[in-house]
Amino acid sequence: MAKWIPSESEREKLEQFFADGAILVPSEAEYWVHDADEGLSYCHDCCEKEVKRLLKKNPDGEYCVDGGWGTDGDSTPFCETCGKLLENTLTDYGCEAELDHFTMYGFDIESNDDRRAMSQVISGREWEPFAGHVYRDDYEKKSDLEYYEQLYAVCKPILGQRMAADFILQRSEVIEPVDMPAWGQVYCNGGLMLHWLWETYYQEPMCFTFKIVGILKGKWSEVRNG
C-alpha cells in the first residue's frame, strides 16, 4: 500500500487547525539576563526582577535585560521564575522531539497546547525537504525522509478526526437526531465517538459511510452496536 502524503488542501486544513489552537495559548517573547547565565529564560517582567536581584547582590555587575527577538531552541522555553510559556523557533532536533512525543503518547485534538506544538513543528521544518537541499551523506538523507514519514503518520489521524468532527457538526445544524443523545452530550463525550469514527474511516472505509448515515438518522445505539 502506498504511504499517505497530505495534499496541498489537506496541509492547509491542518495548518489552519493547528494555528487556530496555537493563538489561544498565551505566550510572550523569550528574555535572558546579559552577563549572567544566559541559558536561563525569562518573561520580560521576571527578567527585570532578576536583573534587580543580581545588581543588588553585585552592584558592579553589568546585568541587563537581553533578548525579546526570535530565537532557535531544541525545546519550547518556559520562564525560569513563573513558568510562563515563551516563544522560539524549534530546531530540527526540537521538531523531531515533538514528533517522537506525539508518536508515543498521541495527539489530543481538544488540546490547544498540542495544536500549538504541531504548529511549531510545521513552521520549523515545513511539510517536505527543502528543494535543492544537498545532503552530507546517505544517512542524513535517510533520516530526513524518515522524519517526514513520521510527520505524515502523526497528521493522518488528526485530519481524520477533524473531518469526522466537522462533518457531524455541520450536519447537526440541519438534521434533528431522534433516538440518540443530545448533541451537547455527544460533544462532552466526543472523544469516544470521534475516535470510533476516524478509526473506521481509515480501517473500514465502506463502513464509515454506513455509520455516518446511521448517526444522522438518529440510530446511534443501533449503529454503535452493529
What would you say this structure looks like, in words?
By secondary structure, this protein is mainly alpha-helical. The chain has 3 domains: 8-25 and 88-160, no CATH class; 31-73, no CATH class; 175-224, no CATH class. It is 57% helix and 5% strand. It is built from 9 helices and 4 strands. Strands 1-2 form a two-stranded antiparallel sheet. A two-stranded parallel ribbon has the order 3-4. The radius of gyration is 23 Å and the shape is globular. Mean pLDDT is 81; it is low at 175-192 and 200-226.
Walk me through the topology.
Elements: H1 8-22, E1 31-34, H2 44-57, E2 64-67, E3 72-73, E4 89-90, H3 92-105, H4 112-125, H5 138-172, H6 183-188, H7 190-203, H8 205-216, H9 220-224
Parallel strand pairs: 3-4
Antiparallel strand pairs: 1-2
Helix pairs in contact: 1-4, 3-4, 3-5, 5-7, 7-8
